[in-house]
Amino acid sequence: MGPGGDVTAEGPSGVHRPQALLFAFFGGVVHGRDLPPIPTVVFLRLLSGLGVAEAAARATLARMVDRGLLERTQAGRTAYYRLTRDAAALVRRADERVSAPAPFDHPDGEWTLLTYSIPESRRDLRQRVRSTLSWAGFGGLRDGVWIAPGTVDVAAVLAGAGLDEVAELAEWFAASPMSGVRVADVIRRAWPVDQIRERHEEFIRSWAARPNGPDPLVQITCLGADWLRVLRADPGLPVRHLGADWPSAQSAAVYRGCYEALLPAAERALDVALGDIAGG
């Protein structure tokens, strides 16, 4: 069980919540293909292969419907699901980085600096902002002051998270370090660099041998969830301030190799499953 009693599933690089696995599935095998809504049984088989019990899988689907992430339709006794428009937009935005050939690279010396002031009484809002900024690649320098590598469209980030009101409480700037600034020290204050390195190395250890299991849908889903964990951890910290042995390029190459190896078989397996169900 995960935090708050949420069920989790074990992957090569750690534990994932079923919702994260389903997003990895949609992003890895469904996104970009003109597929019909997917019946419940496909999700149950997939999550079962990842160690999630049927009751927990059904509960996850129900929660995702309640949260506006999935649309549910019914045909006879069979329920079908597809991403809502908002959830599909999230998957599209994530795919821009997931499938990028160099997902950790930014123009050298470009940073985004953000500052905001939210009343202490709005702790719920402060937590939502912190979570949103972390996912967008920001690290906290000090209370209310955040920095991210590259140029981040902060207005779009806040709007996409339903935080338009925060835009009126924040300012953000394109920034570059001035002479004398020890960028490596700034990075280490804003991000847990050692933990990020370990996340990359853990992914490399888990997937470098390439997958060869019996179920490509299970494998590509687990690969995607593991890779999203790496992308959440590392916003693209500049390698020249981290040392020549920084492992981001190697982990990206491992991901691309595994994904390209798994995708044809995973797409065939999904097509077969959908065809078998449609054919009764």
TrEMBL record:
Pfam families: PaaX, PaaX_C, PaaX_M. InterPro entries: PaaX-like_central (IPR048846), PaaX-like_N (IPR012906), PaaX_C (IPR013225), PaaX_trns_reg (IPR011965), WH-like_DNA-bd_sf (IPR036388), WH_DNA-bd_sf (IPR036390). Residues 191-270 form the Transcriptional repressor PaaX-like C-terminal domain. Residues 19-85 form the Transcriptional repressor PaaX-like N-terminal domain. SUPFAM superfamilies: Winged helix' DNA-binding domain (SSF46785). Residues 107-169 form the Transcriptional repressor PaaX-like central Cas2-like domain. This is PaaX family transcriptional regulator. It comes from Modestobacter marinus. The lineage of its organism: Bacteria, Bacillati, Actinomycetota, Actinomycetes, Geodermatophilales.
